[in-house]
Amino acid sequence: MSEVNDIKENTGEPETSATAPHMTTVERAELLLRQDEAIAGKVAGGASLDEAIDPTNAEFGPEAHPEQVQMRVAKRALMLKNGEQPYPVHLDVTDTIEAVRARYNGKLEAGEETQDVVGIAGRVLFLRNGGGLCFVQLSAGDGTKIQGMISKKEVGADSLKEFKQMVDLGDHLFLKGRVIASKTGELSVFASQWRIASKALQPLPALHKELTDDTRIRKPYIGMIADEKVRNMVRRRSHVVTSLRNTFAKRDFLEVETPMLQTVHGGAAARPFTTHMNAFDIDLYLRIAPELFLKRCLVGGIERVFEINRDFRNEGVDGTHAPEFTMLEAYQAYGNYDTIADLTKNLIQNAAIDAFGSTKVTLQDGSDYDFGGEWKQITMYGSLSQSLGEEITPETSVEHLGTIADKLGVERDEVENHGKLVEHLWEHFYEDDLYEPTFVRDFPVETSPLVKAHRSKPGMVEKWDLYVRGFELATGYSELNDPVVQRERFVAQAKDALAGDVEAMDIDEDFLEALGVGMPPAGGMGMGIDRLLIALTGATIRDTITFPLVKPLN
Which residues does the UniProt record annotate as the domain Aminoacyl-transfer RNA synthetases class-II family profile (predicted)? Predict the structure, then answer.
């Protein structure tokens, strides 16, 4: 194998075509179809690849395919003309790139050959076409790479010529051949057969350059191909969710599914998305939280229940908020906010260990963060009193709290009450400063309509928020199960809604009837999966969501 060398990078920026604002989606799609048909017609008539395309787009205009895409469309047409499938149904794939790499990596000397014949497939990331020998680098989905070599001596002159003509960066390629090491020791598959497994019509971006944020967010599939951090986030998210489910299974929790379309929005203070159901001719809300349905499960006798669910809130977008997100909620009969805090700590610590190998994780900025050990606990009223230098209690008047807020320049809501002012003041001093894991306990009753009153502190409820690295990660309650008190709380929320509070909950009579059947004492918790990934990695929420919602360019 004296002719064997290694791959050199050979890639450039893809061309992009501008979409004219005046052209509708259908009109442009029809334009591109006509161009595809024109190219295929020229190829069928005997034109060469170069003759089949029009780099200037004189006929179809600037909204049509750019030159690189035209050439790939022409190659697809040529394959079909020659009786070859550019998207075959089956290929003789016998091994994965990962398995071949694991079996032989570091075990072959430079120039050493084996008689082990493998059939592999992967995406073409680099190409180098030489005289009698071509080199290709194939990548598996997880980024594991292997070199392929296509030699005239092995596949024949015609096959090698076709390879040079037809294969592009980004194509999925099948290779069958012996496992060898190149002259420089690069693990390789020396092909006796090759075949395009899927023809890529769109070129890849330049892989030696950092992807722009816009490309990474608007085209996550490109990020998965080109950026190891994006691939790792998808896998770590999956590992974290698997870990959560395993922890629940060990504690005898059942996973259920609750409705996304709801006739009454509730379970959290948030502005809902609305839609309309034609069959019933009724307006519906997209779920803002699954809480009220999971509590119905407690009523029905499912005493340990959880759901990993998609929620929708028609609110702002920033580094920790998204309009569509994944929430974990869990409820345990005969528990309370203390037992549910222990469950939450166990869930997060196990997720860190299962996904990252330790409770100490390394964030994207290179710093370490430790989720291990016991976690700090403070009370909302106590910590606020300490910061203000005066005692704040549930009896402190709205007027006095408003005066303090105005003096400090704290932003206030249009619809204010004691609880909201206390939370705004507390956030002014603490929200961004609680770096180590900290449970903030005992909230005002006005802002927690689904929480049981504190057993020893009038005017407060048994609720905690968990803060990590300066943002709220999870919340937990001793759940309210008195249907009379719950009705009082719902009525207070409804009055706030009438006064203009768009986040206030509606009165859910069906839920009140379920509570009337009898819900056992319980502890409950909610935690954003996206936020958990933020806490574990130091990423933004858009980085943690595989397909984030973004505003269309046109």
Answer: 237-552
Radius of gyration of the chain (CA): 30
| 10 burial level (CB within 10 Å; 0-12, 13-18, 19+) | exposed
120 vs 96: CA distance, rounded Å:
6
- Averaged pLDDT in 10-residue chunks for the chain of 554 residues: 39 44 86 97 96 95 95 98 96 97 93 96 94 95 95 96 96 97 94 98 87 83 89 94 98 96 78 91 91 95 97 80 90 97 98 96 94 96 96 95 94 84 94 93 90 93 96 95 90 82 78 94 96 94 84 75
Q: Kindly give, in sequence order, each residue whose CB lies less than 8 Å from that of residue 286, ignoring residues fewer than 6 positions away.
A: 260, 261, 262, 272, 273, 274, 275, 312
Q: What is the domain partition of the chain in residue ranges?
A: 27-82, 97-198, 229-375+436-544
Residue 472 assigned as binding residue = yes
Q: What are the angstrom distances between the C-alpha of 73 and each of 142, 172, 184, 398? A: 28, 15, 36, 69
Residue with tokens 């059947």: 517
Coil, helix or strand at residue 120: strand
Give pTM, 2 decimals. 0.85
> Strand locations in 130-221, DSSP E?
133-139, 145-151, 172-181, 187-198
Contact 511, 266 (CB under 8 A): yes
CA distance 116 to 206: 34
CB 137 within 8 A of CB 169: no
Kindly indicate whether the domain formed by 229-375+436-544 is annotated with CATH number 3.40.309.10: no
Neighbours of 195 (CB within 10 A): 17
List the strands of the sheet with 261-262, edge to edge. Answer: 261-262, 282-286, 274-277
Contact 546, 240 (CB under 8 A): no
Quickly list DSSP for 319-365: TTB-SEEEEEEEEEET--HHHHHHHHHHHHHHHHHHHHSSSEEE-TT
First to last CA, the chain: 54
The CATH fold assigned to 97-198 is OB fold (Dihydrolipoamide Acetyltransferase, E2P) (2.40.50)
User: What are the structure tokens assigned to 339, written together?
Assistant: 């037992």
